[in-house]
Write a structure and sequence with these properties.
single chain; alpha+beta; Zincin-like; 4-stranded mixed beta sheet; elongated
Length: 301
């Protein structure tokens, strides 16, 4: 019953974060336009509103495809990867959801993530290193963890937050370059209001920080629930606990970046953060809870 309450909460939170990031994008564009061209602020604000609405709908329907491309994940057919496909299919049956599409990332670094807007439109991506490293129980544990994110409607929430947070960071990085290269020379315009100018500059500075912190908090809060749901799906937590210990041992952030599947935008989606080796530390800026705490809880189940 607690899991179903959390699923409903996730659906509500998705709506609220849509609104949060929608307003944040509008605020950032307003700040940018006021700093760069105060006389055109309301014109750009209208464009920002249209952009935010369009971006929200686009994110809802296409965020999964964007994330899979960012991770260099390629779809695989049942005939090409029967072991992976049958594992995903078996865990999906146990979870009571449709079988997600299977994707493979050609990297020796073990990791995995799930994406999609709902259980009917979901995908599970695993690295080649994960398939080579894990035994059957461990692979099932990892797949069950990702299936739990799908079942709990985490993936829609997390993927949209990643896309919209990335949009905010991208917008603010553009304006910082513009100001650095002299694009803000009109900020001394006689019509400009110093208070609004200050608000605009502060929004450019702090909006990406707020977006990143929100993204990280969302990721951390969902990992414990996904671990518990995975143990419930399979009926045993040992496989996932053992898999997490192996993932910690064989984590290789430098190689993950070189292989092109890991970046700051998508790190929160993976079962462990691919960009950090110290996975035991508790940190406000971490996308995941401490790994040893996750393993400890699973071992006690």
């Amino acid at each position: 019953m607690e899991i179903y309450k959390q699923i409903n909460k996730n659906k509500r939170n998705t709506f609220f974060f849509f609104i949060f990031f929608f307003l944040l994008i509008v605020g950032v564009v307003y700040g940018i336009s006021y700093v760069v061209s105060p006389e055109s602020t309301y014109f750009y604000l209208t464009l920002a509103f249209v952009f935010a609405v369009g971006g929200s709908f686009y994110s809802y329907y296409n965020s999964d495809k964007m994330v899979l491309r960012m991770a260099n994940a390629r779809p695989v057919a049942k005939e090409k990867e029967p072991y992976l496909y049958h594992t995903i299919e078996g865990v999906a049956i146990a979870a009571g959801i449709p079988t997600p599409k299977a994707y493979v990332i050609e990297s020796d670094v073990p990791n995995a993530f799930a994406t999609g807007r709902n259980p009917e439109n979901a995908a599970v991506a695993v690295t080649r290193g994960l398939m080579d490293l894990m035994n059957r129980e461990e692979l099932e544990g990892v797949i069950a963890h990702e299936m739990a994110h799908i079942k709990n409607y985490d993936i829609l929430f997390s993927t949209i937050v990643i896309v919209m947070a990335g949009t905010i960071v991208y917008l603010t990085s553009i304006v910082r370059r513009m100001l650095f290269w002299g694009g803000g020379n009109r900020r001394d315009n006689k019509n400009s209001n110093p208070i609004l100018m200050a608000i605009g500059i502060l929004s450019i500075i702090f909006a990406p920080i707020a977006a990143t912190l929100a993204q990280m908090a969302i990721s951390r809060n969902r990992e414990y629930l996904a671990d518990a749901t995975a143990a419930n799906i399979l009926g045993y937590p040992g496989g996932l606990a053992s898999a997490l210990e192996k993932l910690e041992t064989y984590s290789n952030p430098k190689k993950a970046v070189q292989d092109g599947f890991a970046n700051e935008a998508t790190a929160g989606l993976f079962i462990i953060n691919p960009l950090h080796k110290n996975l035991k530390a508790k940190n406000l800026l971490s996308t995941h809870p401490p790994l040893e705490e996750r393993v400890r809880i699973l071992r006690k189940m």
